[in-house]
Design goal:
Layout (H helix, E strand, L loop, with lengths): L1 H17 L8 E4 L18 H7 L5 E4 L11
Parallel strand pairs: 1-2
Length: about 80
């Protein structure tokens, strides 16, 4: 009986682990070749840090592609 209970608990844990929702993070990019008219996607990065922050949703990630991005007002 003990083996039977352990088996069912193991199966329940496995089934519940597959039932977890996927949480994809939105990633936005800024870089020296970017343009603030872009949507900050990987192939169309933004230029300024402020535009990248504005385009990044809650719990999203802002990734800097290189060190040449511009801070608003400083060139």
């Amino acid at each position: 009986m003990k083996t039977f209970a352990i088996t069912w608990v193991s199966v329940a844990i496995i089934v519940m682990s597959f039932n977890q929702p996927a949480h994809a993070q939105a990633v936005r990019f800024i870089g020296s070749t970017g343009n603030d008219a872009n949507n900050c996607e990987r192939l169309a990065p933004c230029l300024t840090l402020q535009r990248g922050i504005d385009e990044t949703p809650d719990r999203g990630v802002l990734q800097v592609l290189d060190g040449g991005f511009r801070e608003r007002g400083r060139y």
